[in-house]
Structures are given as C-alpha cells and as structure tokens.
Amino acid sequence: MVPPLVLDIDGTLTDAQGRLDSRAFEVLPTWDAPVILATGKAFPYPVSLCHYLGLPQTVIAENGGVVLADGEVTFTGDREAAQAAADEFVARGGDLGWDAADTANRWRETEIIARLDADEALLREVADEFDLEVIDTGYAYHIKTPGVEKGVGLERVCETMGYDPAEFVAVGDSVNDASTFRVAGRSFAVANADDVAKEAADTVLEQSYMDGTLSVLESLREEDAA
Ligand SMILES: O=C(O)COP(=O)(O)O
Ligand SMILES: [Mg+2]
C-alpha cells in the first residue's frame, strides 16, 4: 500500500507562477490512500480543489484554522482579534493590499492576510499588541493566532478519521508546513522551500515545485511495488 499524503498547495502543487500543475490531476485522483490538502489559503480553495480532483473533501485550510474531516468542520483561531489587528494596522497607515471585497479575506474564518508588499515591521508590531503572530509563507503575510497550525489540523483529521499521523508522508515549501513535517512520519521540502521548511523536513528535494512533489510520489509508488 502507498502511504497517505498530506500536501501543501502553493509552492508544492503549483508552478513558479502559482498556477496549479496539471500533473496533479493525473497523480492525485489515482493515489490509493488518503490525500489531505493542507494550505494557508481560505477554506473554499482546497475544498474546490478536492472537488475538481475528484478527491474526498478532507482539508486543512487557513494554516490549521479550518479543518474538514468526515463532513465535520472545526474552526480554531481568533478571527475577531485578527480583524481588530488588521483594522489597527490600517488605522496606523498600513495597507493590507486588498479591499474588503477581495476573495483573499472574504471567506477567511480564523485569520487575516496581507500582501507581501505590506509594511512588515508595522504588521508585526500591531499583531504583537493583539497577542497574534505574523507568518510569511512566501505568498502572503498571515495575521493569526499562535498555536493554530497545519500540524495540529492534521492531528485533528487523524483523530476524526482514525488515521495515524505517523503513517503520513508530507510535502511542503514554507514555514507553515514545519508543523506538518513534525507530525507526519516522513517529510519532504521541495527545493524552492524556505529555510524554516528545509530545516524541519527530513529530506530536502533536489527538484522544485511539482517536479519535487512528483519525485516523492514516484519513489513512494516504487517502494510500494518493490
Ligand atoms: O496561503 C498561503 O500563504 C500559502 O498557501 P499554502 O499553504 O498552500 O502554500
Ligand atoms: Mg506552500
């Protein structure tokens, strides 16, 4: 049997331009074990990706703030505090880089994000005053509740569905994947990963983006066939 997978989306299933790599449609629907998408993106993104991949909807969104397993959704993280911090950031002259109607925050339930060209020092200063943290995934700044992490989300999925986290193989590219790497049995950082992810991973891959991810999946299939 191939092992179950927990996969990051941006930087891991995408290309360098952030587009989903079409090879995901070949390899993931035919994977003969659970595939969990674990992302910093808002809830609708991984849900729709599962839908169009033809995968059961088991997702970790908003860096662990939202978990869907066995049809049950759980939310952790203080959205109101994140919103208050974001409002304060704007009141002090900061710019999140999106307006209220933007899809980046519109469906976000447990945290708020800012574009990477936002004033990072001010964002961190304000977040700190609200007992929140800021993480930089390479795709956005996330203003979030400390302790809400993808790895905790994976543990929740496993509790709900009766899986063992140690059986999972994780692939990811950034700081928000480090917690997943600690919980999963085996972990791989793609070559484009940031230093935190590379440090946390068991193995740093030679190839970037979906090329790296596919190299893991191919070797897992080879191990299974051996
Ligand atoms: O939402 C982000 O900032 C990054 O998303 P990811 O966790 O799928 O890489
Ligand atoms: Mg990523």
UniProtKB/TrEMBL annotation:
Active site residues of this protein: 8 (nucleophile)
Keywords (A to Z) from UniProt: Carbohydrate metabolism, Hydrolase, Magnesium, Metal-binding
Gene3D superfamilies: 3.90.1070.10, HAD superfamily/HAD-like
InterPro entries: HAD-like_sf, HAD-SF_hydro_IIB, HAD_sf, PGPase
Catalytic activity: 2-phosphoglycolate + H2O = glycolate + phosphate
Cofactor(s), names only, from the UniProt record: Mg(2+)
EC number: 3.1.3.18
Binding-site positions, Mg(2+): 8, 10, 173, 177
Binding residues annotated for substrate, in chain numbering: 150
Gene Ontology CC, one term: cytosol
Example of a GO MF term: magnesium ion binding
NCBIfam families (alphabetical): HAD-SF-IIB (TIGR01484), Pglycolate_arch (TIGR01487), SPP-subfamily (TIGR01482)
Family to which this protein belongs: Belongs to the archaeal SPP-like hydrolase family.
Family matches, as HAMAP family: GPH_hydrolase_arch (MF_01419)
Function: Catalyzes the dephosphorylation of 2-phosphoglycolate.
Name assigned to this protein: Phosphoglycolate phosphatase
Organism: Haloferax gibbonsii (strain ATCC 33959 / DSM 4427 / JCM 8863 / NBRC 102184 / NCIMB 2188 / Ma 2.38)
